[in-house]
Amino acid sequence: MAKSRLFMVAVMLLLATVGVSACGGSQDGGDKPEYPTPAAGSAFFTQDYDMPQTQDAEQLGEWLASEHFEYDLDGWFFFGSLVDDTAPGDPGSFIISMQRIEEVQGGSRLAMVPVIVAYGSSSLGHYVYGGEYALDVSPQVNVESDPWKVEVNAQGQADPLMTMGLVSGSMGEAGAEYLVTADIPDQLGGRLQAEVLMRDRLGVVNQGYGTASFFPQFITAAQREEITGPYGNSVGDYPEATGDPMAAQGSYYYSQPLMDVERFTITRNGAPLSSGTSGTMWMDQIVQTYDEQAYEVLVEGNASWEFYSIMLPQADAAIMVIQITSANGTLPVATLFRDDSDRTRNSAREAVHAWNIDEIDVEAVGGTVWTSTQTGQQYAQQHRISLGSDDWTADLTVTMVRGNQEIVAGSTIKYEGLATVEGTLSGQAVKGTAIVELQPVGHL
Questions:
Q1: What whole-number distance in Å separates Cα of residue 279 and Cα of residue 260?
Q2: What letter would DSSP give residue 344?
Q3: CA separation for the pair 158, 156 (Å, rounded)
Q4: Within-domain flag for 35
Q5: Residue 40 within a domain
Q6: What are the b/e assignments for 218-237, b being 16+ CB within 10 Å?
Q7: Alpha-carbon distance 383 to 271, whole Å?
Q8: 28-71: pLDDT as tens digits
Q9: Overall number of domains in the chain
Q10: In the prediction, which pLDDT does 326 show?
């Protein structure tokens, strides 16, 4: 598989590869319906404490630092802004990820590892990115959990293609430091090198529901009817009330959504591109299995999605907004985390607030379109996000820092890049940054 295609596979699967399971049942009265026991290796909603990551902080840390071979996909994804000390007005966008994907090749089931590194800035005018595909066996791929360290190597190269690791503190806890590095061939025939040290401000948060942070990314027609009816448009209330496991309809989804960059260097072919001592990063850790039906609906069925990872350092807060649209309708999700969030039994932070489906409004601002000269695709450069409930409101304007943040790999097209954020959160002025991902219909 070509390097450019590998890059897109890794980013695409972050949101698009989700699964389906049994339909929900009405809870207007009577006994709860019986649901099939979730198959091994499928993420599902539960309110029990049976899984290791639900027990305590130590076991959650082990879960976050490990590969999960029972599932079809797991990985670590870092993305955010790097602010050059000499050019603070030209922040760079940075992405680095490693994931394991189960694939069938030649009749055998293999664990493959796409590695992705990308950097872009206004001074460059475009992205420089590299992608490699490795078989998940040593010495190509080495993962250690205590302390966490990931290393991906290439034959004939002395230094690793990329590393990720915990350098101080405890995995998933506030105050821990993480270091990522890269030395990888890029799409222009050169080599992209990176080193970023960051400190986690909030610690790990539950993006999903239940004890295992199950995050549904697909709902059936019957489930939608229940969610928008008896359960008042609350995606979280539905499985809590019904016990529907929603097996293979999403992922075990944990984030570390507010990480302060302490130092970084970006070079290409040994020549400096950027360096500094500030910026804000976000990390996702995702574990999931998806099935053929979901792939047909959400990937082959020309689904589109919008993803806004909003980092508000001055408010010690972060908001994730996702809107996935397919033939089954639109599923918006928005969650708020702050430094005073409650913690669960395993010490992960719970959401301060999760907005209901009908409380989330994401709109492109008219007259802000950027048109790609390469593909002809058009992307709004501003989006207005309005979140309203009796407890929490947000009115945010998300503005891309530059036009050309499109990534093209063959027939696959994606717009993913850095934005500034300004507005209010429950009446208080806030500002920050976001990584925005926009997937055009029909170009996965």
A1: 6
A2: -
A3: 7
A4: no
A5: no
A6: bbbeebbebbbebbebbbbb
A7: 36
A8: 445 667 898 998 899 999 999 999 999 999 999 999 999 999 99
A9: 1
A10: 80
DSSP structural state of residue 270: T
| Cis check: omega of the bond before 139, within 30 degrees of 0 | yes
Helix (H) or strand (E) holding 80: strand 73-84
DSSP characters over 89-155: EEEEEEEEEEEEEEEEETTEEEEEEEEEEEEE-TTT-SEEEEEEEEESSTTTEEEEETTEEEEE--T
Of 420, 425, 413, 329, give the one whose Cα is nearest residue 379: 413
pLDDT band at 156 (very low <50, low <70, confident <90, very high): confident
302 token code pair: 């020309």
Say how far apart CA 387 and CA 400 lie, in whole Å: 20
> Is the separation of the CB atoms in 193 and 182 below 8 Å?
yes
CA distance 43 to 212: 9
In terms of Cβ atoms closer than 10 Å to its own Cβ (0-12, 13-18, 19+), residue 240 is middle
pLDDT in tens, 250-309: 899 999 999 999 999 999 999 999 999 999 999 999 998 876 666 676 666 677 889 999
The whole-angstrom separation of Cα 39 and Cα 51 is 14
CB-count burial class (<10 Å; 0-12, 13-18, 19+) for 386:
middle
Helix (H, G, I), strand (E, B) or coil at 72: coil
Contact 331, 305 (CB under 8 A): no
Q: What residues pair up with 280 in beta bridges, in sequence order?
A: 81, 260
Q: Residue for token digits 């490795």?
A: 134
Residue 33 lies in a domain: no
- The answer to whether residue 47 is domain-embedded is no
CATH code of the domain covering residue 368: 2.40.370.10
Asked whether the predicted pLDDT for residue 16 surpasses 70, the reply is no
pTM of the model: 0.91
- CA dihedral in degrees (45, 252, 16, 334; nearest 10)? 80
Q: Is 4 exposed, middle or buried (0-12, 13-18, 19+ CB in 10 A)?
A: middle
Structure tokens at 197: 């040290």
**What domain range includes position 243?**
3-21+53-438
Range 362-375 burial, b when 16+ CB lie within 10 A, else e? bebeeeeebebeee
- Per-residue pLDDT tens over the stretch 102-134: 887 778 888 999 998 999 999 998 899 988 889
